[in-house]
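User: Show me a protein chain along with its predicted structure.
Assistant: Here is one chain, sequence first, then structure tokens.
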Amino acid sequence: MYDYQFGFRIYHSTSLALIDVLDDIYHQLDNGNIVIEIYLDLQKAFDTVDRSILLSKLYNYGIHEM
């Protein structure tokens, strides 16, 4: 599992995810870097996807039922 997967994992809350982001921001600022972040809300993005097309494309990339 991906180390930065915070959802649905024990001891990996959304608060911990926020702390991780803030830690990275402060680290970059301490090094004299400029920090720009963009956040996108993709909550409804997959509601507009044609599932048959998505499944077809995933199958073409080798991702399918086992």
